[in-house]
């Protein structure tokens, strides 16, 4: 199968959760609080894809799979996962801007200033944008060793994304703590790998 | 389980009722789990057979009421707005009786300044295996709030007995306060002299106060309360002062700083 077809199929797979939401939307299956449903689903998938992106390097180091044989080069797998995270984060932001803020710039600015969890979410999403822009092979060549340094920002922004969720919760922190635990395990791998 | 009730004509405001599909499946009832679908999913874990409500404390005639006796009190239907502190809302036809009717049976004495409501505690309730809140769930009202004609004990909803996920077999409904003040599955009511601590005040004192009146002008520390999203709707509407019951209840708080007494 040509590489481009494989990449397209993999991207399509990553977009399936979004299609499920579209299906639910069209069939009135978003429940009693449809906006909350969309926000939680797109937020969860953003974190899942960030965690999956962070899983690629440990898999590489531990199992040394032949990515080219089974799929395509490792950095392409990682790139599609990272870009998917951005896509879900943008859907998350769009839902918030349209349905929570009613597309009012004033309300949005007030919300960012008054609510730390909104500010933190905004910072996390903003940090993701330069990583997406510089995710191409061309940028990787141009930035040389700085590329890796820049892309370490994913550690910070994933943490901020999880914090954004934890700060929203009323009392039951179980789910954000599970995400934090998974993130911690993935970070421990990196410390051990570097040693 | 149809109930025998009459429609109270004073409380039949022409409001669009929330689709029961939403009101009966999207619930905050942490005893049955913290996600919105958990209470419906785990509803059978709540056992309501032989339910009794104890009323004790500062009163002349402390008593234990069997649920059957409470159902023999005259039941009426009232349509109330309901506003959750999280920013969603609904309009629901409750069935039940005013709390004042029940409290007058035990003859509160002059030391009864506050009323404390205590909900079920049972190790079989899946949510109570975790100390998400300080169990059992406790809430409180000032005596004059408790005796207010709007304050209601609900035994039914949409013409039928309360389903477990909505707080069966008997719950409080205080329509001008955020939903968490309306305790579910109540087993004990205590008349007390000092202001009681609610479970939410213990959990997060900076966010949940004793009064918790619906107020679009006082934000929750983490989100605005100016608007609300009716269940089933994509867009928000403005939240009303005291949830639309300003004429009836504003006088209870005359001279009080509502920002301080949140």
TrEMBL record, chain A:
UniProt keyword Cytoplasm, yes or no: no
InterPro entries xrefs: Fe3_Rdtase_TM_dom, MsrQ-like
Cofactor note text: Binds 1 heme b (iron(II)-protoporphyrin IX) group per subunit.
Domain Ferric oxidoreductase intervals: 42-161
The UniProt record lists the keyword Flavoprotein: yes
Cellular localisation: Cell membrane; Membrane
Known cofactor(s): heme b; FMN
Pfam family name, one: Ferric_reduct
Record keywords, A-Z: Cell membrane, Electron transport, Flavoprotein, FMN, Heme, Iron, Membrane, Metal-binding, Transmembrane, Transmembrane helix, Transport
Annotated TM spans: 7-26, 46-64, 76-97, 117-137, 149-167, 173-191
Major localization class: membrane
Topology of this chain in the membrane: Multi-pass membrane protein
Oligomer and partners: Heterodimer of a catalytic subunit (MsrP) and a heme-binding subunit (MsrQ).
Main function: Part of the MsrPQ system that repairs oxidized periplasmic proteins containing methionine sulfoxide residues (Met-O), using respiratory chain electrons. Thus protects these proteins from oxidative-stress damage caused by reactive species of oxygen and chlorine generated by the host defense mechanisms. MsrPQ is essential for the maintenance of envelope integrity under bleach stress, rescuing a wide series of structurally unrelated periplasmic proteins from methionine oxidation.
Record-stated family: Belongs to the MsrQ family.
Full protein name: Protein-methionine-sulfoxide reductase heme-binding subunit MsrQ
Taxonomic source organism: Thiomicrorhabdus lithotrophica
Lineage: Bacteria, Pseudomonadati, Pseudomonadota, Gammaproteobacteria, Thiotrichales
């Amino acid at each position: 199968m040509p590489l481009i077809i494989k990449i397209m199929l993999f991207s399509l797979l990553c977009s399936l959760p979004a299609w499920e939401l579209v299906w639910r939307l069209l069939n009135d299956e978003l429940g009693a609080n449809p906006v909350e449903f969309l926000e939680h689903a797109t937020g969860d998938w953003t974190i899942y894809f960030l965690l999956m992106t962070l899983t690629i390097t440990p898999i590489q180091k531990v199992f040394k799979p032949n990515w080219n044989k089974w799929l395509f080069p490792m950095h392409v797998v990682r790139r599609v996962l990272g870009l998917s995270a951005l896509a879900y984060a943008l859907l998350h932001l769009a839902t918030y801007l349209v349905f929570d803020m009613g597309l009012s710039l004033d309300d949005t600015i007030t919300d960012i200033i008054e609510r730390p969890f909104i500010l933190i979410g905004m910072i996390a999403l903003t940090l993701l944008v330069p990583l997406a822009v510089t995710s191409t092979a061309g940028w990787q060549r141009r930035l040389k060793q700085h590329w890796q340094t820049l892309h370490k920002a994913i550690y910070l922004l994933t943490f901020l994304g999880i914090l954004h969720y934890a700060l929203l919760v009323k009392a039951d922190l179980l789910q954000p703590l599970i995400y934090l635990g998974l993130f911690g395990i993935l970070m421990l791998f990196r410390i051990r790998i570097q040693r | 389980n149809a109930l025998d009730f009459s429609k109270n004509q004073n409380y039949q405001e022409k409001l669009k009722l929330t689709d029961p599909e939403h009101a009966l499946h999207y619930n905050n009832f942490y005893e049955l789990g913290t996600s919105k679908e958990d209470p419906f999913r785990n509803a059978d874990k709540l056992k309501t057979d032989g339910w009794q409500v104890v009323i004790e404390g500062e009163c002349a005639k402390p008593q234990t009421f069997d649920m059957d006796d409470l159902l023999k009190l005259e039941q009426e239907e009232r349509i109330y707005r309901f506003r959750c502190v999280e920013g969603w809302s609904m309009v629901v036809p409750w069935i039940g009786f005013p709390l004042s009717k029940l409290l007058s049976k035990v003859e509160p004495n002059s030391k009864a300044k506050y009323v404390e409501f205590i909900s079920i505690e049972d190790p079989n309730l899946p949510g109570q295996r975790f100390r998400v809140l300080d169990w059992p769930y406790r809430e409180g009202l000032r005596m004059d709030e408790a005796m207010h004609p709007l304050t209601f004990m609900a035994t039914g909803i949409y013409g039928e007995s309360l389903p477990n996920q909505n707080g069966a077999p008997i719950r409080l409904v205080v329509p001008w306060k955020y939903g968490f003040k309306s305790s579910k599955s109540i087993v004990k009511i205590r008349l007390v002299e000092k202001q009681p601590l609610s479970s939410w005040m213990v959990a997060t004192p900076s966010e949940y106060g004793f009064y918790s009146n619906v107020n679009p002008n006082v934000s929750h520390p983490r989100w605005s309360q100016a608007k609300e999203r009716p269940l089933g709707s994509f867009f928000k509407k403005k939240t009303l002062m005291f949830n639309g019951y300003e004429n009836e209840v504003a006088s209870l708080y005359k001279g009080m700083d509502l920002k301080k007494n949140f």
